[in-house]
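S.,

Sequence below, as promised.
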Amino acid sequence: METLQTNTRISLSNILVATDFSKVSKNALPFAAALARQYEAKIIVAHALSPEPHLSVPLDPLAADADRTFQEAQGRLAEFALGDTLRVRPAEMLLERGDVWDVISDIIQKRKIDLVVTGTHGREGLKKLVLGSEAERIYRKATCPVLTVGPRVTPPSDMNWKLHSILFPTDGSETSLKALPYALSLAEESQATLIFLQLMPMAPVQYRESDEASAREAMRLMVPSAAEDWCKTEFVARFEFPAEGILGFAKERNVNLIVMGVRNLGDSAVLEHLPWPVASQVVAKAHCPVLTVRG
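The prediction came back faster than expected:
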């Protein structure tokens, strides 16, 4: 693997907060606000309503001013976006009817969104298969990075999210490396410690030390030569299962953010809601926000 000689600085101009008005959505707001302040970005808050009102008798589509459900959602959106939680006035509040992903995808394209911020209820297993996960659809399909805040994340009490340590789990794949510029740039911007973590399948004891050394060296080669001028880096290799290893290490080191690449599992609804992908488990159970970049 060749050494990366340059670091791509990320720029956030337009941040989209996707909400369903739930507590987990509200918990995501302080993180969006902190990034908006740091990068002087504009915040757009959006909610997707069911494609059509639920009516007992089929009717022609209602005008917005005659659609009670739409009007109620407008009120909830204003309360959500303009309350004390955000403390950064959104530039736009968007309420549209349609499938959640279709609405979000359209906004990403038309508003040139650089980052989506959303909460997730962290459903897993059969419950996830039955109910689905809109957050996972977003972070596996979005063309921009997605910051997902799970149910175990405690929002900052002072509304000021400081990044002291960032965890970048990697297996060296192309999908994983898509997220590296974001991890590097955020570490530089915040002067945070960036921890590279590679988790390997179990191996005979006599080979583990050399395998760990090889993995650490491969991770060092991912870092630009001047990186030590603007952030502290660490390289950790362990023999553990990926999801459990990432979650355990993140909690052990009390990291503020996990940055990782994710695969696009395609358009199949069944594939999108499989309960076992590593990213799904990390996002659902992490005690800090997870920034995912689609590979």
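The CA atoms of residues 243 and 278 lie 5 Å apart.

Coffee later?
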